Amino acid sequence: MSHQLEKKSSYNVAIAGVTGAVGEIFLEILAERKFPINQLKLLASPRSAGKKISYDGKEYTVEALSKDSFNDVDIALFSAGGSTSKEFAPIAAKAGAVVIDNSSAFRMDDDVPLVVPEVNPAAAFRHKGIIANPNCTTIIMVVALKPLHEISPIKKVWVSSYQSASGAGAKGMYELQTQTRQLVNDEPLTIEAFSHQLLHNVIPHIDTPQDNGYTREEMKMFYETCKIMGDPSIKVSSTCVRVPVISAHSEAITIESENPITVEQAREALDKAPGIRVVDDLPNNIYPMPLDVAGKDDCEVGRIRKDLASENGLTFWVVGDQLRKGAALNAVQIAELLISK
Amino acid sequence: MSHQLEKKSSYNVAIAGVTGAVGEIFLEILAERKFPINQLKLLASPRSAGKKISYDGKEYTVEALSKDSFNDVDIALFSAGGSTSKEFAPIAAKAGAVVIDNSSAFRMDDDVPLVVPEVNPAAAFRHKGIIANPNCTTIIMVVALKPLHEISPIKKVWVSSYQSASGAGAKGMYELQTQTRQLVNDEPLTIEAFSHQLLHNVIPHIDTPQDNGYTREEMKMFYETCKIMGDPSIKVSSTCVRVPVISAHSEAITIESENPITVEQAREALDKAPGIRVVDDLPNNIYPMPLDVAGKDDCEVGRIRKDLASENGLTFWVVGDQLRKGAALNAVQIAELLISK
């Protein structure tokens, strides 16, 4: 198939949206993991073209994304928003690149795999030029669900999220930092990135409202979980809330499984699972927190306990860096997977 | 019974712990609601004795709490911590006062009513000198549960909280404000009131760990809900999380009831319920948020929608000022109830 990556010693990689919050982390992670890059092409909107960015000791000039950007590109990492992906990902795929797209544009398309390498690695190879990177909050949840699902199938999930400002991109992170400074300096607070003041507040609204009273973010957690886990029978009900945290998303999760999963079984399975670290010692004030997890690759799981309301229920707390595992790292791991065969 | 309040035109009221976060609000609320006070006695630890506090245009001197503090007191409002309540509430009751105690010291005692006036007003009259004011997070939840429970009995509750700094008292609120200033001024952050930095973080740990992996705060939400609702069959599973908000607690709640409750039924019942305001217009960015609810008496409910995981499930979002309805206001409402008969 034309779209399977040819085995090479190094690859031509393009990053579309390199000046955004996730774009920057793409570069960090590619360098950290010594991804075998032959040529690197940094792409962004015309507004950012000409900007200099250094990678691995060399300076690169950001180019304006155009329909000619993808000639000779093997792997195109997209994180430039849904409309940009919709326009340029098919062009990149047609030009022969494998696109790994961080937007929600193609996630639910039948012929686009939605991949979390720890959960459904095989799906990555069934692409037709575009592979979708799931929603950040969903990725962080499913890495923890997967090892439990293997003990006993998960039937129901209730999740409340505590999502950080940088989930709304660099502008969200910047707005929280700006509001913090403004409050202390007694200045009026800038409110642009979020619909309300985020500092010293929480906002139970992420992404656009849907007809059923849920937000799009909340519905993504339902549909994407089913697709990634390959089980359309899982029901996910969520409340997605923005909290005044710079980076890393937290989630309070309850699962109900077909058969009971004990705390010991869960801890053992999570301990062995890739991409997860169990951080669970409440009496010593040890549990995952966004301040600790920001900048880390692994998602951390703690507060693991039997659910008190559901018969076969288990309750726990997961925190993951949504710019890394929730976005850039997951995409790079998909690329690593593709070049590993 | 000696402990039922005699009908008078005004009452001698003592406040124990008047210099704390809740103590201050006690005074605000008594004044706002023109509680009929004959003599007012302001009590605190010896450390705070001598402090001047004005109430309704008059200046009062804080006295050190002692075993002689309660002679001639009709109503004693306590918010001075569990150990002070344990020592002095029985003394006050013996001296003839009716104690309304905001600590957790007596809440689960069989002969101490645990009262939320909107939920179980009759229980208030079954006291033997001490009435307990429930945990703040529990009060805010049960005012919303009660009207739904009347449509169809609630069997299960899953709740994740977003609790503000002032839930840990004035020192918690002060620490978040201090950390905000310190971060902006590039100073080291003071971490004393909470086990970790709260600013730009969330901490999934409130109150002491229990053997079952839950915290005491989380277990209070279970046991106190059953006692207040008068239904020991309700099962409550919660995750209590501290968030960097100054005041007002938020809660993402899912209930499973015996029979389905529609969104329309729920909204209608909550709209009519005392102590609640429905604030629910997601497409117009309208929902309860702590910044808006702080300082208000009513709890606000929004994001009301059918739960997607549970058959007879309903999911919603409640925010309440935990110093007011979650503490001082609820206690004063209990006092009003007692003098109303």
UniProtKB/TrEMBL annotation, chains A, B:
**Binding-site positions, NADP(+):** T19, G20, A21, V22, R47, S48, S166, G167, Q322
InterPro entries in the record = Asp_semialdehyde_DH, Asp_semialdehyde_DH_beta, NAD(P)-bd_dom_sf, Semialdehyde_DH_NAD-bd, Semialdhyde_DH_dimer_dom
Task: Give a yes or no for keyword DNA damage in this entry.
Answer: no
The residue ranges of the Semialdehyde dehydrogenase NAD-binding domain are: 12-127
Residues holding substrate: Q163, R242
Q: Which GO terms describe its molecular function?
A: aspartate-semialdehyde dehydrogenase activity; NAD binding; NADP binding; protein dimerization activity
Positions of the catalytic residues: C136, H249
Enzyme Commission code: 1.2.1.11
Residues noted as binding phosphate in the record, renumbered to the chain: R107
Summary of subunit composition and partner proteins: Homodimer.
The protein in question is named Aspartate-semialdehyde dehydrogenase
Q: Which organism is it from?
A: Desulfurispira natronophila
Identify the taxonomic lineage of the organism of origin: Bacteria, Pseudomonadati, Chrysiogenota, Chrysiogenia, Chrysiogenales
Gene it is expressed from: asd
